[in-house]
Amino acid sequence: MKRGLVIAVDGPSGVGKTTISRLLAERLGFRHVNTGSMYRALALAADSAGVDLESDAALERFCATASVCCDASTEKISVNGKDYTPYVRTQRAGELASVASARAPVREFLLAVQRKAGEGGGVVMEGRDIGTVVFPDADLKVFLDASHKVRARRRHLELKGEFASGEVSAEMEERDRRDTGRRNAPLKMAEDALYVDTGLLSIDEVVRLILNDIRERLGIGDIRS
Ligand code: DC
After folding, report:
1. Whose Cα sits closest to atom 6 in ligand 1?
2. pLDDT tens digits along 100-137
3. Whose CA is nearest to atom 2 of ligand 1?
4. Of 67, 45, 46, 65, nearest to 55 (Cα)?
5. Which of 6, 35, 39, 179 gets mutated to test ligand 1 (max ligand atoms within 8 A of its CB)?
6. Is 132 in the pocket of ligand 1 (CB under 6 A)?
7. pTM, to two decimals
8. Which DSSP letter does residue 138 get?
9. Residue minimizing CA distance to atom 1 of ligand 1
10. Which domains does the chain have, with CATH numbers?
11. What is the pLDDT of residues 138-158, one digit of tens each?
């Protein structure tokens, strides 16, 4: 049986991945899966269980019995039955996720969760390695990017001024360094991805550009959920 389309959306933080992926999924009638939330929720759960996020052995033990549930329609995310939705967008969750996501046991565990979440297609999945590792055969790969300045400003606004802009900018730089420099599934653009600089366009323009690309490359008639 033919599966639905898989749209992979990758890129660093602050490029508008979530807003754009959500709108794309809405327009296509697809599910939206945010894999960043999975890393954030798992890192929070492991940290609150006292797991050392730099220890592969401790993380492996934690992941061996962990269960992650994400509801694509409500975007609720829970780990081991605890709802982490209210906490996943905090700065602390981002910092913990950046550390935990560099570790192989965490990536292996969530890779299986993500492939399962994308099963059957009809999905827009966002993250850092969706087009390169999770779904290297995705029907369309999009890489969103923007200058450091634009991204740091957006992130500062997203955190509602909770942190000074210089602090947000420095933290983002550190996270970029970890995301792109790690050995396991580093952030990089897939060779066959559509590159979009979101700093120069409005959200609507980006969504329109991607939908046009889907129509041209794949034929709108083939789109199914
Ligand atoms: O997109 P985000 O800020 O919610 O991601 C949180 C962290 O998780 C970030 O440091 C990168 C990491 N991540 C990853 O390594 N792979 C993914 N597919 C998604 C997120």
Report:
1. 36
2. 999 999 999 999 999 999 999 999 999 999 999 999 99
3. 36
4. 46
5. 39
6. no
7. 0.93
8. -
9. 36
10. 6-214 (3.40.50.300)
11. 999 999 999 999 999 888 887
